[in-house]
Specification:
Thrombin, subunit H, 7 helices, 13 strands, Rossmann fold, elongated, 34% strand, alpha/beta, 2 domains, five-stranded parallel beta sheet, six-stranded antiparallel barrel
Length: 235
């Protein structure tokens, strides 16, 4: 795998720690900026695979920066990971709703942090194909079971019609897809609602397949996939 280029928005102490952490030995090239202007200057000047924003960095408004990046035409497709020592479901849900693809609670070992990010990016590349299907998804979340239409589906998640599921809620998803003899059941999480686009709905990220569901879904997608650069950013 080529060197992963990562831009972090954090304080100078973190920047100093990076030099001692051995990121480069793990195949990661890290740049660290300390304000919003420097962040956008770097994004314009160089290519980065990922932006990491520390929600606890008080010298800027991290949530506003995240929202600005994801709403910009130039960088809306750039994957953003947020970190924080705070672990409340509300904070996590807000970050994901603003467009972050992953929330990592700190502190964690550097090796775990890098492997988590590499795994995520690798999975995104491998699941760049999606399927537009006819079928339905039954979602059990917060004690309620609701049936939805399916807009898009990939190996990592599903985009369903409807926008009333709470972000951050754990869910049991039952997929009934045309051409499959039996449903696929998956544990997952409600990521966020999508509005203002042609694909309005709610995105759910898969976390654990039940039985042989992962293999059957993978075969289904291989058979029916269409190429798209959008599905990976839903999750």
């Amino acid at each position: 795998m080529s060197m992963l280029k990562l831009l972090m928005v954090d304080d100078r102490t973190v920047a100093a720690d990076l030099a001692r952490a051995g990121y480069r030995k793990m195949g990661v090239q890290v740049a660290c900026v300390h304000d919003v202007k420097s962040c956008f200057d770097q994004l314009v000047e160089k290519h980065y695979d990922l932006l990491v924003i520390n929600l606890d960095y008080t010298k800027i408004d991290p949530a506003r920066l995240l929202k600005t990046v994801k709403s910009s035409k130039e960088f809306s497709d750039l994957p953003v990971v947020v970190t924080s020592v705070q672990s409340s479901a509300k904070i996590k849900a807000k970050a994901l709703d603003l467009g972050a693809i992953l929330f990592i609670e700190q502190p964690v070992p550097v090796s775990f942090f890098i492997e988590k990010i590499k795994s995520l990016l690798d999975k995104q590349v491998r699941t760049n194909a999606r399927v537009e299907v006819y079928g339905k998804a039954t979602v059990l979340a917060s004690g309620h079971s609701t049936e939805f239409g399916i807009i898009d589906i990939s190996n990592t998640g599903v985009l369903i019609s409807g926008q009333h599921l709470e972000a951050g809620a754990q869910a049991l998803v039952t997929l009934e897809l045309d051409g499959l003899n039996k449903p696929i059941k998956i544990n997952g999480e409600v990521v966020r609602s999508l509005s203002g686009t042609k694909n309005e709905g709610t995105a759910l990220r898969f976390s654990e397949f039940i039985g042989d569901g992962e293999e059957r879904l993978s075969k289904f997608i291989d058979k029916h996939k269409i190429e798209s650069s959008q599905i990976k950013y839903y999750f």
